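Case study 2.
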Amino acid sequence: MKVILEAQHAVGHPQVRGVGQYALNMIQALLRNKAFDYELTFFDFDREVGNHLRAATYFSEYGVPVHECNELDYRIASRESSVFASRSYNDYTNTDGDIYHFMCPVSIPTNLTGKMILTAHDVSWRSYPGVISPNATMLHDIAIERIERVQPFIIADSKSAKSEVLQFLNVPTERVEVVYIAYDEEEMYPDKADVSDLVSSEYLLFVGTLERKKNIIRIIDTFNHIAEKYKDLKLVLGGKPTWDNPDEIYECVNNSPYTERIVMPGYIDTITKRRLMSNALCFVFPSICEGFGIPVLEAMACGCPVITADNTSLPEVGGDAAIYVNAYDTEQLTYEMERVVDSESLRREMISKGFLQAKKFSWDKTAEQVENIYRQVAAE
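Prediction:
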C-alpha cells in the first residue's frame, strides 16, 4: 500500500515548532517503521523558502521519494479552493497514493484521488474565541469548510481535541479517533550542562510560541507577585512570537518592575531547550487551551517539575505528575509557584512522577497506532 505523507509543516520553516514539530516527528517515526511504501509531498513556489533543503536534511536517510510542487504557493492553496477546481492534488504533486495523510487542517485539498486522513490538533479558535488572530481564524474556518466537504478520517491528538472536533465540525463520531502524540526521547532527557550564558541564577521557565493562548501575560503578572520575595529568582520566556503576534507581551515585560530579571532568549534550539528545562526550578505552562501540549512531556522527561492548566488536553498529558491551576486564576498560580520554589522535597517528588509519566508516550507507539488507522481506512 502506498501512503503519501504531507510534509508541508515539517519543512516549511527553518525553526520547527508546534504543528511542524508534530509533522516532523510523526513522519520520521513512520519512515523508521517502514510498514508501507511512503512518499512525501510539499509545495514551495519557485523554491522561494528552501523547503527542499530542509526535506533533504530531515528525510534523506530514509530514501523516500519526495514530490515537491514548485508551481503553486502553499499559502494560496490554503486560501483559494479555486486552485483545485480543475486540477487535483495528485496532479499538482505527481502522486498516486492509496492513502494521503495531511498533518494539519490548514492544508487539505478539495480535489483528491485516494483516501484522505487528517490530523486535527484542536478547534481552539472556536472553543476559545480570540486566542488566535483574526487572520489565523479565517484560515482555520476555511479548513473547517473543506473538512466538512471532503469528510476525511480524522486523527485527534487527545480526547479533548476529539471532543472539540465533534462539537464544532459536522463529521461522524466513528470517523474520529484519538492517537496520543509524544516527545523526542533521543533529544529530551536530563542535561545539567551550564546555562549561565543565558541565566545565571535560579529561574522559572516557559518554552513555547509567544502567543495569546499560551497565557504569557499571566505568567509575567504572577512573576511580578513573587519577585520581591525571591530576590534572585528570574523568569525565562523561551520562544518566538507568531508572525501576527500582538505587542502586548513585550509591553507587559517592559512595564514589569522586574523587567531586568525576565530573560527572553527568543527561539531556542533543542539542546538549549533541554538544558534550560533540566536546570529550571519549575516549568510553568498555564495555557488557555492545548490540543496536546508536548512541552509538558519534554519538561518532565528532562526532570523538571511542571505547573500547567487544568483545561483541555493538559490533564491527559500531565497525569498525576503535574500541578494544575485554573488558567485565569493569578492568585492560584502564584500560590503554586511559591509552593514549588519553597519545597525541594515537593520538586523531587514531582520529578520522579514526571519521569514515569513521560515514559507512557513514544513516537514509535504513536506511529503503530496511526499505521493501524491506515489499514482500517484502506479496508473501507
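The radius of gyration is 21 Å.
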